[in-house]
Amino acid sequence: MAGPIKLHLGCFRKKIHGFVNIDVRADVEPDLVDDVSKLKKFKSNSVDLIYTSHVLEHFSRVDSVKALIRWHEVLKKGGTVRISVPDVEACIEHYIYHKDLDALKNLLYGSQKHPYDFHYTGWDFKTLKRDLELIGFKDVRRYDWTKTEHAHVDDYSAAYLPHKDFKNGRLMSLNVEATK
Fold it and tell me: What is the mean pLDDT of the segment spanning 109-136?
């Protein structure tokens, strides 16, 4: 493959041009069917960028750490992991202010429309940063989804409440990137 190798993990039906779009479900027609937590089809130190939006929370606490470890292994030195997960801090603040659990159900528990669509864990910036640094990632920081090469993709990295109210709403996704 010529050029940088960029993976879009848990792509579902949202394909990103220039990325290898990977999902465990063949029915969503990814470029590659693979367990995104294991990435068996990729060698260590072979990938430049990993992007995943609202996928990591679908693993147990133990399995999410194993996934992060594997992603660290497949990244080249200097490679980037870009992760979007529901922002537990934003969810709690939203609930305290609005007392509207219905608005948060999908963020907290998943849509629960198929066996892979349940949430098992969650993070705020402090805990995700800690997990990434313990594995060996460096320069852990928030990223602005509007300034990425995949900003045109309508995915959960741009999840706002009220829905799609980018001007007055609250971003409900914790968007974090780090370097190997």
Answer: 96
